[in-house]
Predict the structure.
Amino acid sequence: MNRQNHTAKKKEHSLDHFRNHVRYRTYLHMPLRSRIHHAHIMKVQKDPENKEGKVLQQFADFKDKRVLEVGCGEGRLTWKYASASSLTIGIDPDHSALRIARVDAPYNLQQHVHFADASANNIPFSKETFDIAVLAWSL
């Protein structure tokens, strides 16, 4: 293995370690009810065949659109369409989930994907700001 590949693998390992550390620290600060829910969800594989992404693409054309995702949580669905959109903003009232979403953001999407602490009852944007609103598993 050459020096450049070794350095790249070391950086990736370091980034994975940081992400796991943030997830663990976030988990420690969750209320007990959230921990139980989180532990249950963690046992399930997260759409390995991208079925959710394919369904989302059937309902809307995200290409070059401004998208608001209400109840984005940890960003699990956000990354399934964010690469096609021109701007994606995910809102959620759960600070811990947003922290994980920010850490898990793929490097190439960090410029046009943003997260805000807000709820569906109090969206801090005008309706003309977005072309598409996504509410999936958020009610």
Q: What stands out?
A: Residues 7 and 123 are 43 Å apart (CA to CA). The chain has a mean pLDDT of 77. Strands lie at 66-70, 87-92, 113-117, 132-134.
